[in-house]
Amino acid sequence: MTDPAIPVPEYDALVVGAGFGGLYALHQLRAHGFGCHAFETGDDVGGTWYWNRYPGARCDVESLDYCYSFSPELHAEWDWTERFATQPEILRYARHVADRFDLRPMISFGTRVAFAVWEEQTRTWLLTTEDGRRARARFLVTAVGCLSASRVPDLPGLGTFRGEVHHTGRWPHGGVDLAGKRVAVVGTGSSGIQAVPELAADAAHLTVFQRTPNYSLPARNRPLSGRENWRAKSELEELRTHARTGFSGFYIASTGRSALDVGEEERRAAFERKWAIGGTEIMSVFTDVLTDGKANEHLAEFVREKIRAAVDDPATARKLVPLDYPIGAKRICVDTGYYSTYNRENVDLVDLRAEPLVEITEDAIRTEAGTYPAEVLVLATGYDAMTGPLTRIDIRGTGGRSLKEQWSSGPRSYLGLAVAGFPNLLTVTGPGSPSVLVNMVRAVEQHVDWIVGCLRRLREDGVDRIEARPEAQDSWVAHVNEVADTTLYPRAGSWYVGANVEGKARVFMPYAGGLNHYRERCEEVARSGYRGFALS
Ligand code: N01
Fold first, then answer.
1. Ligand 1 center–CA 345 separation, angstroms
2. Is the CB of 147 under 6 A from ligand 1?
3. In 10 A of CB 432, how many CB atoms?
4. What is the mean pLDDT of the chain?
5. pLDDT > 70: what percent of the chain?
6. pLDDT of residue 255
7. Which of 78, 385, 507, 515 has a CA between 20 and 30 Å from the CA of residue 434?
8. Is residue 254 scored above 80 in pLDDT?
9. Could you tell me the end-to-end alpha-carbon distance of the chain, in angstroms, rounded to an integer?
10. 330, 333, 451: which is closest to 15 by C-alpha?
């Protein structure tokens, strides 16, 4: 309950979230003289990297790219220990950033924002937290992430299960003791694929319940040498250049050719080279893997062969091989020993397409073909992606309109940064921006820089209200769809299109036109005096 006797603190800007986006937003807002404060649900900074503590959690973007580029001092003092950093190491980095830049005093931890209401009279946002605290600000900057609204599917009988149930995105901080236990995992996306080898090593027995097989690439993770860290430190300018000019926000080695312009031998050799390097580089070795069905099929078949070769039992391999959607159309996975885990004696794979799940009982998962006992149930079932983190807050714009209702047929935004009918709301990596399709940290830096640049300009011009014009929003949404339709992304039932959430509108949510082109567009809008926005 809110107490009207308690004065409501007022700021220039309120930030929601203290992950990579929120931390940088606080830093930049304060640096440019804006009074600001953030609310964060977790008890510490880090966002995704605070919550995702499941065994095997690590980033699939290389550490030397998955870090801020805004501060030469920060860049110079931090060493990464592995090519792909673990969750604990990335969390340490986020904590270091918070401490180094003295951001913690501006953050209320353990505080979830429940309501955000635009008040036209005062031209401010009034926020109310779940525990009844309030705060007011001219601008509301959401930095809630794209994959923070974890999703527990409505599995029949789930409530009757007597053992432990853990979602990968809400993993207990103290870990889970799996020794001697029978463990079941539902879900084989990035989280499941990372967790399975580790769970199999710890549990007495692991049963993996797969609905859709995924394509996964070997990480080939390894320790980073002092020399590699040293070199990266001396290459900050290159990093920044790639962030500006690169399609994905980092350097990608590509042949610059179509997969269809080379012969079978050359194509295969190129795939083999990238397979040996590991990580996601193989996706861009040719220019058209994500845009041309035939080019895509060459890579898809190459990866299918690798899966078949890694798995001893041909029947298990058949279940693991994706056949009905293009590689990369669902977010590509990166693993360490995922497929070979199915060669372990203590691991079974259940194909839920062949034997649909009937119910969860108090001690088992029952399908149409069998009953699989379990003492621990791991839900690697993903997220209400991109929109969920925003619509789980009751956000009310002009005339009391609800963001959740306004987006019930799919999210609509201008540049992924602003929403018509929601003045002074600025969404870091919102739907309609490149975010999840590019290096997230670069996407966050670009958005925050643009937002802070915008607020500075408004302050200089004595403007205190900015709102996306509906027609600019319509044309941006049309452009996002048009670009998506030139790719193969819409051809899979992925979280990019909301397919993983029952009843969610099927709309391709991120912008697939590249961070470089997107950045140019945003800068051009700013240069033009914020074309497409109504300022007053
Ligand atoms: O979630 P997902 P995730 N019954 O949605 C299945 C990022 N990430 O947490 O495909 C049975 O990908 C679902 O099946 P289907 C990354 O961007 C990054 O794994 O819908 N199964 C699917 O197999 C990633 O893409 C990193 O048929 C059900 C799985 O659960 C994103 O987060 C690590 C079901 C969900 O897969 C999300 O990944 C982890 C049901 N009712 C995550 N409901 C790295 O950086 C869902 N499923 C490495």
1. 25
2. yes
3. 28
4. 97
5. 100
6. 87
7. 78
8. yes
9. 34
10. 451
> How does 218-238 read in b/e, with b if 16+ C-beta sit within 10 Å?
bbebeebeeebeeebbeeeee
| Model confidence pLDDT, tens digit, residues 303-362 | 999 999 999 999 999 999 999 999 999 999 999 999 999 999 999 999 999 999 999 999
59 CA to middle of ligand 1, Å? 15
Q: What pLDDT does 244 receive?
A: 83
Return the ligand 1 atom nearest residue 61 CA.
45
149 lines ligand 1 (CB under 6 A): no
How high is the pLDDT of residue 4?
A: 78
- Is the beta carbon of 84 within 6 A of some atom in ligand 1? no
- Cβ–ligand 1 contact at 151 (below 6 Å): no
CB 62 near ligand 1, within 6 Å: no
CA pair distance 83, 316, nearest whole angstrom = 30
Ligand 1: distance of its center to the CA of 298 in Å? 25
Cβ 26 under 6 angstroms from ligand 1? no
pLDDT at residue number 243: 79
Q: Which of 532, 416, 390 is nearest to 483 (CA)?
A: 416
pLDDT of 415 > 80? The answer is yes
Q: What is the pTM of this model?
A: 0.97
The secondary structure element, H or E, covering residue 210 is strand 205-210
Ligand 1 site, residue 211, Cβ cutoff 6 A: yes
CA of 192 relative to ligand 1 center, distance in Å: 7
The pLDDT score that the predictor gives to residue 1 is 63
Q: Whose CA is nearest to atom 45 of ligand 1?
A: 59
CA neighbours closer than 13 Å in the CB half-sphere of residue 92 = 11
Nearest to 29 by CA among 451, 472, 432: 451
167, 413 Cβ separation under 8 angstroms: no
Q: 492, 117, 210, 503: which is closest to 324 by C-alpha?
A: 492
CA atoms within 13 A on the CB side of 384: 20
Mean of pLDDT values over 206-216: 98
Contact yes or no for 522/530 (Cβ under 8 A): no
Q: What is the pLDDT of residue 253?
A: 80
Q: Is residue 3 scored above 80 in pLDDT?
A: no
pLDDT band at residue 240 under the 50/70/90 scheme: confident
Q: For the residues 63-70, what does the mean pLDDT come to?
A: 95
Nearest CA to ligand 1 atom 29: 187
Q: What is d(CA 465, CA 454) in angstroms, rounded to the nearest whole number?
A: 11
Tell me the CA–centroid distance for residue 327 and ligand 1, in Å: 15
**Nearest protein CA to atom 17 of ligand 1, as residue:** 331
Locate tokens 């670069």: which residue? 442
Helix (H), strand (E), coil (C) string for 162-203: CCEEEEHHHCCCCCCCCECCEEEEECCCHHHHHHHHHHHHHE
Average pLDDT over residues 413-428: 98
SS3 268: helix
